[in-house]
TrEMBL record:
<feature type="transmembrane region" description="Helical">
    <location>
        <begin position="147"/>
        <end position="166"/>
    </location>
</feature>
<feature type="transmembrane region" description="Helical">
    <location>
        <begin position="172"/>
        <end position="189"/>
    </location>
</feature>
<feature type="transmembrane region" description="Helical">
    <location>
        <begin position="52"/>
        <end position="72"/>
    </location>
</feature>
<feature type="transmembrane region" description="Helical">
    <location>
        <begin position="12"/>
        <end position="32"/>
    </location>
</feature>
<feature type="transmembrane region" description="Helical">
    <location>
        <begin position="105"/>
        <end position="126"/>
    </location>
</feature>
<protein>
    <recommendedName>
        <fullName>DoxX protein</fullName>
    </recommendedName>
</protein>
<feature type="transmembrane region" description="Helical">
    <location>
        <begin position="79"/>
        <end position="99"/>
    </location>
</feature>
<keyword id="KW-0812">Transmembrane</keyword>
<keyword id="KW-0472">Membrane</keyword>
<keyword id="KW-1133">Transmembrane helix</keyword>
Length: 196
């Protein structure tokens, strides 16, 4: 049996991996010349969809990947990110199956399995959601979050979008802005501890 600390570390590593996967994919779609680092694509999605008058839809997909990935990569909102990731992965899975892409459905199946591990850990949160209120099994208590912590996290997220705009004039400054944003968001946990 894993200790609670080991289990939390394992889940955070899964969240960071999934977060980087989707955050990087979204950022690469919107960064100048697709220069943001990530390991899944396609980075050319927005340009391809523009040919059919769907460029705005492609940007929406990229922004959704950035938001969902950021919720996970910073681990502050990994439950919310994991819930939002289910339809994202399933939609991508349906597209890859429809286009008969070889191998990609298996990769997405693996990512979905990892995401389900996070959701399984937070299963005690679902009874009140399903029952639209209190239920016999209340969620376990977790670290208290503060509004100041939420605001600090939001500043870090905003810097990600600023970095996209900067990438068209200075790629290194854009990377630096993105990394500073992630660090600021991670500091939101310290802000919570200070303000409790």
């Amino acid at each position: 049996m894993l200790s609670p600390k080991t289990k939390r570390t394992f889940l955070n590593l899964i969240a960071v991996f999934l977060g980087f996967t989707f955050f990087g994919a979204g950022m690469a779609k919107l960064y100048a010349e697709h220069q943001y680092f990530g390991w899944i694509g396609p980075t050319w999605l927005v340009e391809k969809l523009e040919e059919y008058g769907l460029g705005f839809y492609g940007q929406f997909i990229a922004l959704s990947q950035i938001l969902i990935g950021y919720l996970l990569i910073t681990t502050r909102y990994k439950l919310l990110g994991s819930i939002m990731l289910i339809p994202m992965i399933l939609n991508i899975l349906m597209i890859t199956i429809s286009l008969e892409w070889k191998g990609t459905p298996f990769v997405l199946g693996g990512l979905l399995t990892l995401n389900l591990l996070i959701l399984w850990h937070y299963r005690d949160f679902f009874a009140p959601l399903i029952n639209e209120g209190k239920s016999g099994n209340q969620p376990k208590s977790r670290q208290k979050r503060t509004w100041k912590g939420h605001m600090v996290w939001t500043v870090g997220l905003a810097l990600q979008f600023v970095s996209i705009a900067i990438s068209f004039s200075s790629i290194w400054l854009a990377f630096g802005t993105s990394m500073i944003g992630i660090i600021i968001s991670l500091l939101s946990f310290k802000v919570d501890k200070i303000n409790q």
